[in-house]
Design brief:
Layout lengths: L12 H6 L7 E8 L5 H14 L5 E7 L5 E7 L6 E3 L16 E6 L2 E7 L5 H19 L47 H4 L4 E13 H9 L5 H16 L9 E7 L1 H4 L9 E7 L9 H15 L2 H13 L14 E8 L5 E8 L2 E10 L3 H12 L5 E7 L14
Parallel strand pairs: 4-5
Antiparallel strand pairs: 1-6, 1-10, 2-3, 5-6, 7-12, 7-13, 8-9, 11-12
Amino acid sequence: MNYNIGKKLLSERFYLTWAGEEMSWTVRMTLKMRDSVDGDLLRQAVEQARQRYPYYQVKLDVKKDDAGTEYFVYEDNSEPWVVSEGEKPVQLIGPESNHHLLAFCYWDDCIAIDFFHCLTDGTGAYNILRTLLYEYCNRRYDVALSRANVRVVSDTISPAEWEDPAAQAKPDNLAPFQVPERKRCINLTTQAKTALNEAVETVNILVEEQEMMKYVSSGDTSPATLVSLLLTRAIARLHPDMTEGVPMVALAINQRPALGCPQAGQTMAGSLRLTLNDEMRGMDLELQQTIFRGMVALQSNEDNVIEGFWQTQNTQDGKANLGAAEQYVSEMYTEAYTPYALTVEMSAVNGTFCLSLMQRFADDTYLDAFLDELRQIGISYRIATRHPVTVAPIADYRKNKS
């Protein structure tokens, strides 16, 4: 069956244009399991997962059209997905990963998937992890887990999983809502109140899901919106002079529902721009939450998402839902290559929200301000780990041209 192999890549172009050896645009999702990991059983599970996702069994190539213009394509890659022992990721797109755009590793009680953002996004990676955990935990614990909401090898693979929405025609008669003009935003890479490092640190923060949901259910908000607002409030506190620009965060969203392609395997992540404008600073938290929810609703309106998607073509609440195998996972973290001074990735698994805060700052000025925002609203937390950001490097995929 043709899984778009050899066809010009469209949805993937943003990452293919900007990525390189110094800017990998790769993501690592780490699962901390209940027990130590059996490497042999994990390799069996990875092989089963590989067979379920033939459209991810690819390698990158660069071709030229008749006019000499380069474009990227996927080619078949029948080599196995790499599973390595140890925390260090292998280089993607090169020999270490059998030229695949994703790979796996394990150590102690942890399993990690590393993938190039061009291949897929968090939603696509969650699908792979659900399959992987289903296959692994069935073997590891000698159980027969429910396969509800889990994609397995025996499935008939729908074209809806691999057909690229960007290859379809743009819908007519879109009526996106008018979004207020965005003001100049504070740039933390040039305007931070503390020195920046070249290296990035990941700080993993745990919040009990029950405690988080109790708070958000009592107010007009959601976990992702609340974290976005608290982060923006922390930045605003450190930048009281509005002449510098307004505090802003970009909230990632899954564009699949609005685009009518809920099964799509490509990278379908978009972002909403949420700003804490001057007139909002003196408001109480509840009103700020309501306004932020309004911003989210406005920008995530279906026609706005579709219009934004096609503008991109023309120019990750974090709930993993890992299925029945989730009971064997205690924590889940997401790290990503980030060109920004401050990024927060949020995952939720087995009753715990895991916030991975990635910072380029030389000290904890912004981290402390964010944690203080959590304390002020009565949400307790604990810092689980701190370490240099761990994501996979990528090989120079432009070298071998057809």
